[in-house]
Amino acid sequence: MFCRERTLSDSNDIKLAANGDKHAFKRLYERHVRGVYGMVFRLTADRSLADDLVQEIFVQAWQSLPKFDGRAKFSTWLFSLANNVGITEMRKQTRWFKRNERAVEFNTKEEADSTTLDLGELDKLIVQLPEQTRQVFVLHALQDYSHQQIADMLNIAEGTSKSQFFRAKKMMQEWL
């Protein structure tokens, strides 16, 4: 029931927001920001970068909303946009290892208390994965992309995607 109500609310707010209604867009933002932030944070393992990317994603969503055709659910469209923005930004980054170190350092009790997003045990493990392994795991296990789609997005071989996913599962099983 909740999902259906959310879809109906989204549908109405999408029409209004596409015509420039900022209040309708704010309601869409409030309904979806936590999910988008969670996905982007898992992908980047960097709170500051995730904050910046979420802003960018919603700016792009506002600009692109008139082109939204409704063939997919709004959340699917928004997460696809978020994924594209996240992957593009990850390609721009040159300090992969530094970002991973910061992610583990930020994952302290003090940092967790200062945010409204409570990281679960799985999230704590995900941010400790090596960069490409984490990206593949998030895209395949949490966003349900195929290994071929991931290979295309990350410019890697399909077999590399599969092996990175296997590596992520193995590492997390060992940590558990």
From TrEMBL:
One GO term (biological process): DNA-templated transcription initiation
RNA polymerase sigma factor 70 region 4 type domain segment(s): 120-172
Keyword Transcription regulation recorded: yes
GO molecular function terms attached to this record: DNA binding; sigma factor activity
InterPro entries given in the database record: RNA_pol_sigma-70-like, RNA_pol_sigma-70_dom, RNA_pol_sigma70_r2, RNA_pol_sigma70_r4_t2, RNA_pol_sigma_r2, RNA_pol_sigma_r3/r4-like, WH-like_DNA-bd_sf
Sorted UniProt keywords: Sigma factor, Transcription, Transcription regulation
Domain named RNA polymerase sigma-70 region: residues: 28-95
Entry-linked NCBIfam families: sigma70-ECF (TIGR02937)
Family of the protein in this entry: Belongs to the sigma-70 factor family. ECF subfamily.
Name this polypeptide is given: RNA polymerase subunit sigma-70
